[in-house]
Amino acid sequence: MKREFQQLLLDKGWDRLPRVLIASAECAPISKTGGLADVVGTLPKSLADLGIDARVITPYHRCVKDKYHDQVEHMFSFSVDQGWRSQYVGIERLVLDGLTIYLVDNEYYFGDKIYRGGIPEGEQYAFFTRAVLDAIPNLGFFPDVLHCNDWHTAMLPMLLRTQYGYFEHGRMKTLLTIHNIAYQGKFGFEFFRDLLRVEDRYFTPEFMEINGCAAFLKAGCVFADRLNTVSPSYANEICDPFYGEGLEGILSARRHQLSGILNGIDKKVFNPHSDPLIPKRFDKGHLRGKQACKESLMFDMGLQADPGTPLIAMVTRMTKQKGFDLVERVLDEMMGFDICFLLLGSGDKTYEKFMRDAENRHRGRICSYIGYNEELSHRIYAGADMLLMPSLFEPCGLSQMIAMRYGTLPIVRETGGLKDSVIPYNQYTGEGTGFSFANYNAHEMKRAVECAVGLYRDYHDIWEGLMRNAMGMDFGFERSAEEYARLYIDLL
Ligand code: ADP
Questions:
Q1: Which is the most buried residue in 2, 64, 427, 447, by most CB within 10 A?
Q2: What is the pLDDT averaged over residues 302-307?
Q3: Which of 35-49, 104-118, 412-426 has the lowest mean pLDDT?
Q4: What local confidence, expressed as pLDDT, does residue 305 receive?
Q5: Contact 408, 297 (CB under 8 A)
């Protein structure tokens, strides 16, 4: 055990590291729709290296059943009340790569999509909440800390305190991690009354009420013992009405119990030195391979320009959050800098149409690949010169970290995790790992792009220095895991 943890435990009067159960709607690699799954899949493995026994509890989704059913072991079953229905709960165990994952089985709720949307999704996760709490005493693993993630598991702390406090559950401490505050799980009071037996006295602004509804996430913000989010800057931002989505009041009141821990990336998966998905490998000391990656990418994507032309890329969900309004506003003007622009993403139909039209207007200079493509994303991180990420808000962001690892310099807006992970170029000291702009303004973004393009063209040595700085940054998950470990111990 690390000396530092020994001391922290001693201060708490504990003689062992905490046991942690991580509750989440998704967990990579078995079920994944976004970054949450990566965190939940990676964190317990890094915690294990620190000596912490952390396990995951997650729904037994159809996609998991299809792929892993022959590796899953049935543990026990029982039933829970969901409104007027009595529902079956099966608890299965899957051990993958040393990580124990408890799977909550129920075909009615988890027989198809991970997220059904609307009220059906609320029902899925109200059921999951109840199933987790009733299953815990029989898992043979009683956690000291229950680590909840996003709104889908944010009712756990409230039910624990208001309905399970007299049982041994009362010993558990809870941590709620907010990965994205924009999604809160808002439903009418009757939903919570019927499905989770929440008493009427909790439907007030001090507890669950928000704009005439009640929200899973608000309950978590009120009742969890500690709160954290996925970057220090985002932790500050969500205490402000611009970013707080109505939860800024409770979060400001609990600011001293709210921290920010930057996520990390899997350094083995994203490694230009060994990545099997890219045409030529490279590293900090041997950058030639990157040029070969760029040329092959440009050729395959139909970009017809001199290989020295700056190639700016985006790999992203196409939503307002990701700053597409700014791109729409000035993309044509930016093309005047004699660049190539490559987009991989999908999302809002209006943005998708905008990109297709832009591609037609700038044939051979803009390419948009609408869809999800893991292999292409690696080739883009390896082959592009710059990655544009002008987000309106960004809790953490992984794309900019991946880009830096491949020597692709990010151009970001200074918000959330982008602000915490990208060091802007300083023309006086030569320091930096990318470029940034402060305000959500299209012409500020354009100026940042112009500055980056100018440097790329005219100051090759400085550019290579920045690439090396970026590739030398350590965004591995080990650092995040240590911070989570400190937080768990602090909770005891
Ligand atoms: P968010 O989780 O908000 O979508 P992040 O930057 O945290 O944004 O993580 C996005 C992850 O998904 C990155 O690993 C990125 O490479 C990947 N990604 C996003 N869109 C696509 C796509 N269309 N094809 C392949 N990978 C994608």
A1: 64
A2: 95
A3: 35-49
A4: 93
A5: no
Q: How many CA atoms lie within 13 A of 353 on its CB side?
A: 3
Domain map of the chain by residue range?
3-264+477-491, 288-471
Give the Å distance between the CA of 484 and the centre of ligand 1.
Answer: 23
* Number of Cα atoms under 13 Å in the Cβ half of residue 455: 25
How much is the average pLDDT of 315-341? 97
User: Strands 85-96, 173-178: parallel, antiparallel or unpaired by DSSP?
Assistant: unpaired
- Confidence at residue 169, expressed as pLDDT on a 0 to 100 scale: 87
Rg for the chain, CA atoms, rounded: 24
Q: Do domains 3-264+477-491 and 288-471 have the same CATH topology?
A: yes
Query: How many whole angstroms from 55 Cα to the centroid of ligand 1?
Result: 25
Instruction: Establish how many alpha carbons lie within 13 A of residue 298's alpha carbon, considering only the half-sphere containing its beta carbon.
Output: 25
Cβ(417) to ligand 1 under 6 A?
no
Report the pLDDT value the prediction gives residue 291, as an integer from 0 to 100. Answer: 96
**Considering only CA atoms, which residue is closest to atom 18 of ligand 1?**
316
Distance CA 198, CA 191 (A): 9
pTM of structure = 0.93
CA atoms within 13 A on the CB side of 385: 22
3-state secondary structure of 407: coil
Question: In the CATH hierarchy, which fold is given to the domain comprising 3-264+477-491?
Answer: Rossmann fold (3.40.50)
87 in ligand 1 pocket by Cβ < 6 Å?
Answer: no
Residue 400 CA to ligand 1 centre (angstroms) = 10
**Ligand 1 atom closest to the CA of 389, numbered from 1:** 6
From residue 81, alpha-carbon distances to 87, 88, 133, 469 in Å are 6, 9, 13, 56
Q: If you search the block for the tokens 């409104």, which residue do you land on?
A: 83
Question: Is the CB–ligand 1 distance for residue 180 below 6 Å?
Answer: no
Which pLDDT score is estimated for 266? 85
Mean pLDDT value across residues 290-304? 97
* Structure confidence by residue, pLDDT tens digits, 390-443: 999 999 999 999 999 999 999 999 999 999 999 999 999 989 999 999 999 999
* Euclidean distance between CA atoms 105 and 108, whole angstroms: 9
Place of tokens 């799954």: 37
Residue of 317, 322, 373, 378 best suited for mutating to test ligand 1, as the one with most atoms within 8 Å of CB: 317
Of 3.40.50.2000, 3.40.350.10, 2.40.110.10, 3.60.160.10, which CATH number belongs to 288-471? 3.40.50.2000
Q: Of ligand 1's atoms, which has the minimum distance to the CA of residue 317?
A: 20
Residue bearing tokens 């985002």: 234
Does ligand 1 come within 6 angstroms of the Cβ of 319?
A: no
Distance CA 368, CA 390 (A): 17
